[in-house]
Amino acid sequence: MRSATLSAEPAPPGPAEFYRVNRGGGLFSEGLSQRVGALFAAAAYRTGVSPTLLTAGNLVVGLATSAAVVALTSTSAPTWVAGLVALLGWQLAYALDCADGQLARVAGRTSPAGARVDVLCDIAVQISLVTALSAVAVDQHPATASWVVALFAGTWMVNLVTSVMQAGPNAGSMVTSTSLPVRLVKLVRDYGAVIFLAGLVLLLVPQWTIWLVVAFTIVNGGFLLASIAFTGRTALRS
Questions:
Q1: For residue range 48-58, what is the model confidence (pLDDT) as tens digits?
Q2: Torsion sign across C-alpha atoms 7, 8, 14, 16
Q3: Which of 28, 72, 203, 207 has its CA 20 to 30 A from that of 113?
Q4: Which residues in the chain show pLDDT less than 70?
Q5: C-alpha to C-alpha distance for 207 and 96, rounded to whole angstroms
Q6: DSSP H stretches of helix in the chain
């Protein structure tokens, strides 16, 4: 009687394999958001969920969170309720955003179309986030000038645009050091850290939201001007 040798199927990759291919994002994102994303990516791999479905999850959760914050702000609900929704919902959406790329790279399912829909969904979520923060700021300080909100909305997209540019063949960085002090300073541009701070402000001190809006307008606007100067100098030298 001939014996048959059964070859065991390889075990599916675990969270560590997905985390290994993460694209960073900053100290906070690497320490929390990308790790949670790796858990989602591993679960999606085992259940056959596609990267695009994770992208859609980011879109749905992100938009629903921002819509809930706006709706709760316009009601008599306690302000901390909107803050808790923001703190948890935006972090969950971002973890799903981290997970879709990890899953695509490990599963070999990357594609130009998938990358485009990922960016488009990120834009939609961030527009909703800016809308929610602006709504809370104006609700807490009704005298807020319209140009403050407009400038905040415009400069907020600097982070997203520069992140997309960093992924191209002509990517460059003004500060290449990876030392801890530099990475701590760069937390002001770490999306995971930024939305965590925004959620905490909405939860604990919503009346400070206007100052959060002003602070990030200054930070993002300053970064834009510095990037123009840095890139322009490099272009003149080439």
A1: 999 999 999 99
A2: negative
A3: 28
A4: 1-8, 164, 166-176
A5: 30
A6: 15-19, 27-28, 34-47, 51-73, 79-107, 112-140, 146-166, 180-185, 191-204, 209-237
**Residue 1: predicted pLDDT:** 44
Residue 161's pLDDT is 79
Amino acid at 44: A
- What distances in angstroms separate CA 23 from CA 35, 66, 117, 166, one per listed residue? 11, 25, 17, 11
Nearest of 47, 2, 38, 40 to residue 17 by alpha carbon: 38
Q: Are 66 and 131 in contact (CB under 8 A)?
A: yes
Query: What is residue 3's predicted lDDT score, i.e. its pLDDT?
Result: 47
- Residue listed under structure tokens 């075990």: 11
CB atoms inside a 10 Å sphere around CB 88: 14
CA distance 177 to 127: 31
